[in-house]
Amino acid sequence: MRTYTFLKTKPFLLGLLLCAIGGTINAQEKIVTRVPADTSKTSLNMDAVYNRPFLALKNTPVALGGYLEANSIYSSEDGVSEGLSFQARRLTIFMSATISKRIKFLSEIEFEDGTKEIGIEFAAIDVAFYPALNFRGGIIMNPIGGFNQNHDGPKWEFVERPDVAVNLLPATWSNAGFGLYGKTHKYNWIFGYEVYLTNGFDNSIIDNEENKTFLPAAKENEDRFEESNSGKALFTGKIAIKNRKLGEIGFSYMGGVYNKFEEEGLTLDKKRRVDVFAIDFKTTIKKTGTYIVGEAVLIKVDVPDTFTQQYGTKQVGAFIDVVQPILKRKVLDWDNATLNLAARFDYVDWNVGTFNETQTDIGDNLWAITPAISFRPSAQTVFRLNYRYQWQKDILNNSAAKTATWLFGFSTYF
C-alpha cells in the first residue's frame, strides 16, 4: 500500500488525543459496548466494510474499531540474506456513525510502517432506500475481486497479502466517486451488486519505477481524490452470488480511459483504456471445516506502440488459500481457541505473450507457495508462522531467482 489521501499528521493525532481525553472525562457516564461483527449467513464480501467488531459508547451515535498488524521477517534470495527484521506493518482505525434514519457514515484510516504513510482508505456516506437499492458516495473502495474489500489482517492466516492483490492489482484500491449497491435473498440464495463511477488510473501504470505495466503505481497519485487524470470516469461493477450451503462467487469488472488524451481542446493521444476482469470465490467444506478462498484476474492495457515489449498489454494472476482447522478447544481462558494448518499458492504474469522477433515466450512472472500454521485464541486475533518460497523469472525467461522467507507475526482487532 502506498499513497492515498494524505493527512496532516500532527493535527490528526491531536484530534485523536482530544477524543480520548473527552472519553476519559465522561467515563463514569458512558458504558462501552462491543458490537460484534456480523456473522450471519446473508453477508457477502461487499458487506466486509461494516462486518467488523466495533466499540460503541452509550448515548452516542459513533462507534470505533480497528486492527493492528506486526511481524518479523527473515528472507534470503539465492542464498543471500539481509538478516532478521521486525516490522510494524499497519495500524488501521475505523469510525462509523449513524447520522439519521437510513443514513450512516464509515471511515477507515490506515497508518503504515510506523506512520511513514498515512491514508484514508474509505470515507463514505451510505443512504439506504431499500435493501436492493442504496447510495454510496465519498472515498470508495473499488469492488474488484474479493480481497480488495475484505483485506483486514485478522481475517487471514498469512502475513503477506496475495501477490495478485498487491503486485498485479493495487491493493486496497480506493477513489473518490459514488454509485449504487444492494442485495436480496431468497431461500438459500443471496444476490448482491455494486456499481460505481470514480476517478481512476493515470499514465503511471506504464511509466513507473518498475519499468513495466504495473497498475499499483497509480496509488502514488494522490490527486486522484481531487480530479480524474483522463477526464473520464472509471467504472467498477460487481455481481456476487452466494448459496448458504455452497459458498460465494463474485464476478467483477473495472475499466476506463487512463491517459490524458487531450488538454484545453488539443488532442495529445488517442484514448487508451485499461480493463480488469476478476472472479473470486470462497467456501467452507462443512464436514471437515476446510475453508477455501481464491481470486483470478485478467488485465488488458492499451500500451502505445512507441513502448518496448517489456510493457505488457495483457497480465494474469491468481491465488488460492486452503485453511484446515486441526484443533479447536478451550486453551487457558480462551473457550474457542483454534489451531490451523494452511497453504497459499500465488501466481502472477506481468507480460503474457511472445517476443515479436523470436516468437519465444516473454517472462516476467512469479510463482510462490506458502505453508502456514496459525493459532487463534479468538476469532479476532491470530498468530501466524509462514514460510514462503518464491520463483521469479525476468522478462528474458532466465533461470528463476529463488527467494525463501520466514515470517512470524500477529494481527488483531481491537
Description:
The protein is mostly beta strands and 414 residues long. The chain has a single domain (9-413), classed as Porin (Beta Barrel). 6% of the residues lie in helices and 54% in strands. The protein has helices at 9-25, 163-168; strands at residues 32-35, 54-57, 62-77, 80-100, 103-112, 117-130, 133-141, 174-186, 189-198, 234-243, 247-257, 262-263, 266-267, 273-285, 290-301, 314-331, 334-349, 365-378, 381-393, 401-413. The strands form 2 sheets. Strands 3-4-5-6-7-8-9-10-11-14-15-16-17-18-19-20 form a 16-stranded antiparallel barrel. The longest helix is centred in the N-terminal third of the chain and has 17 residues, at 9-25. It starts with 8 loop residues before the first helix and ends with a strand.
Which strand order spans the largest sheet, edge to edge or round the barrel? 3-4-5-6-7-8-9-10-11-14-15-16-17-18-19-20
How many H/I helical runs? 2
Question: CATH topology, what is it called?
Answer: Porin
Global outline: globular
Main CATH class = Mainly Beta
- What is the CA-based Rg, rounded? 22 Å
**SSE arrangement, N to C:** HEEEEEEEHEEEEEEEEEEEEE
Indicate the low-confidence ranges by residue numbers. Answer: 1-30
β-strand amount: over 45%
Structural category is mainly beta
Largest sheet composition: 16 strands, antiparallel, barrel
* Name given to the CATH architecture: Beta Barrel
* Count of domains: 1
Proportion of residues in helical segments: under 10%
Question: Termini distance?
Answer: 22 Å
**What would you give as the CATH superfamily?**
Porin
Give average pLDDT, whole number.
90
